[in-house]
């Protein structure tokens, strides 16, 4: 049996890392996507006009990284949502449902005191590769 591989995933279609981490790391069968904020990939600016826009942008960044890794939203097995205010949960959940329409992955949702760039929502994922 050969040694497992570990490859760094990077795409210009999602914001670059804002610290010492990779957008994602993939193995032979899985991809682990770092937490994604609603940062504009071109400018790095936080897209936080409202919680719907911010959630949609974070999930769009997640989707771009998954696709760059050779995966997709349909192959996600686990996500974690980090949100600044649990009162935003119903709206975040509604937008999340736009991205995961059927057979949603396992998920945790955690209220946090603060997120990088003072974001209101961050999402990470673990997915299978095609």
Keywords:
130 residues, 2 helices, six-stranded mixed β-sheet, 60s Ribosomal Protein L30, Chain: A, alpha+beta, 23% helix
Structure explained in plain terms:
The chain has 130 residues and is an alpha+beta fold. The chain has one domain: 60s Ribosomal Protein L30, Chain: A, CATH 3.30.1330. 23% of the residues lie in helices and 27% in strands. It has two helices and six strands, in the order E-E-E-H-E-H-E-E. A six-stranded mixed β-sheet has the order 1-2-3-6-4-5, with helices on one face. Strand 4, helix 2 and strand 5 form a beta-alpha-beta unit. Helix 1 runs parallel beside helix 2. The mean pLDDT is 96.
Q: Strand order within the widest sheet?
A: 1-2-3-6-4-5
What is the CATH third-level topology name? Answer: 60s Ribosomal Protein L30, Chain: A
- What is the CA-CA span between the terminal residues? 21 Å
What is the tally of beta strands? 6
Tally of structural domains: 1
Order of helices and strands: EEEHEHEE
| Uncertain stretches | none
Count of individual helical segments? 2
Mean pLDDT: 96
Q: What class, by secondary structure content?
A: alpha+beta
Largest sheet: 6 strands, mixed
Q: For this structure, what is the CATH homologous superfamily? A: RutC-like
Overall form: globular
| Strand percent estimate | 25-35%
- Radius of gyration from the CA trace? 14 Å
The CATH architecture designation is: 2-Layer Sandwich
Helix fraction, binned, reads: 10-25%
């Amino acid at each position: 049996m050969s040694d497992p591989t570990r490859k760094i995933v990077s795409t210009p279609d999602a914001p670059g890392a804002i610290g010492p981490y990779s957008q994602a790391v993939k193995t032979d069968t899985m991809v682990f996507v770092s937490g994604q904020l609603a940062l504009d990939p071109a400018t790095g600016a936080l897209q936080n006009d409202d919680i719907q826009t911010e959630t949609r942008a974070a999930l769009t960044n997640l989707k771009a990284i998954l696709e760059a890794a050779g995966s997709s939203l349909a192959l996600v097995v686990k996500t974690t949502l980090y949100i600044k205010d649990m009162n935003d949960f119903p709206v975040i959940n509604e937008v999340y449902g736009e991205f995961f329409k059927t057979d949603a992955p396992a998920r945790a949702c955690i209220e946090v005191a603060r997120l990088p760039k003072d974001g209101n929502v961050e999402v990470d994922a673990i997915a299978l590769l095609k």
